[in-house]
Amino acid sequence: MLVYPSANDLSSRTLRYLTGLLADHRCRIGSRWRRLACGRQALLVLAHLRCGDTYARLATGFRIGIAMVYRYIREAVNLLAALAPTPEQAMKTIRRKAYVILDGTVFPIDRIAADRPYYSGKKKRHGMNVQVLADPAGRLIWASDALPGATHDLTAARTHGIPDALAADNIKCWADRAYQGADAAIRVPIRGRHLCGWRRRHNRDHAKIRSLGERAMATLKCWRLLRKIRCSTTRITALVRAVVALELASY
């Protein structure tokens, strides 16, 4: 077997944050001894989330069993997911912003053609739909639970109660055409192919504002595990929430 060194582009601050979280958890549950120290477990989890390394590769690199890798990752992901902001906590942050940007993305998953609920006709692939709210600078604020990829963005937003929450606090929100007809609080481009005059200028200015929301999407997709998720669909929400918690901790 060939062995080679690898690198991770995350900062040491992220490693220390997760290490401290794991150390507090071990003290709380009274764990006396583990095969890996807290720092090594944190590094293993970050390698899985950021680089997308498989259980088998991590087991070889850290010289532990595959089952132990699975338990270490699941433990850390559950701890991080519990720290991700809830919709109510996100709304408290949003109220301090001039406006927010709403967008949806489909994270690819490994499924067969028979799994129709997970097939996104827009993306032409199987995936899970996640709604994201970003601030005017494009920083990530909140990410929703994952829904099957066949779910339309507007349907997903309504399922999570996003339009109602924004309208209740009179918060301005910019979104793309997929959210046409959501609510007056969500501003979308004017429909039409051959627009001119003020309508064309409106759509151009709208696109400039909305484009900053792509930074939040890029932030999530920098975590390579989310580019092709091969775990059970019931675990994807926890993975996304764990990534959000790590990103927010780095701000």
Q: Can you put this structure into words, describing what you see?
A:
The structure is a single chain. By secondary structure, the protein is α/β, with parallel strands linked by helices. The chain contains 10 helices and 7 strands. It folds into 2 domains: 12-83; 87-231, no CATH class. The chain has helices at 12-29, 38-51, 55-62, 66-83, 87-94, 153-159, 162-168, 198-211, 214-221, 236-250, and strands at residues 100-108, 119-120, 125-134, 140-143, 147-148, 173-174, 186-187. Strands 1, 2, 3, 4, 5, 6 and 7 form a 7-stranded mixed beta sheet that branches. It starts with 11 loop residues before the first helix and ends with a helix. The model has no long low-confidence stretch (mean pLDDT 90).
Q: What does the secondary structure layout of this molecule look like, with pairings?
A:
Layout: H1 12-29, H2 38-51, H3 55-62, H4 66-83, H5 87-94, E1 100-108, E2 119-120, E3 125-134, E4 140-143, E5 147-148, H6 153-159, H7 162-168, E6 173-174, E7 186-187, H8 198-211, H9 214-221, H10 236-250
Parallel strand pairs: 1-6, 6-7
Antiparallel strand pairs: 1-3, 2-3, 3-4, 3-5
Helix pairs in contact: 1-2, 2-4, 3-4, 4-10
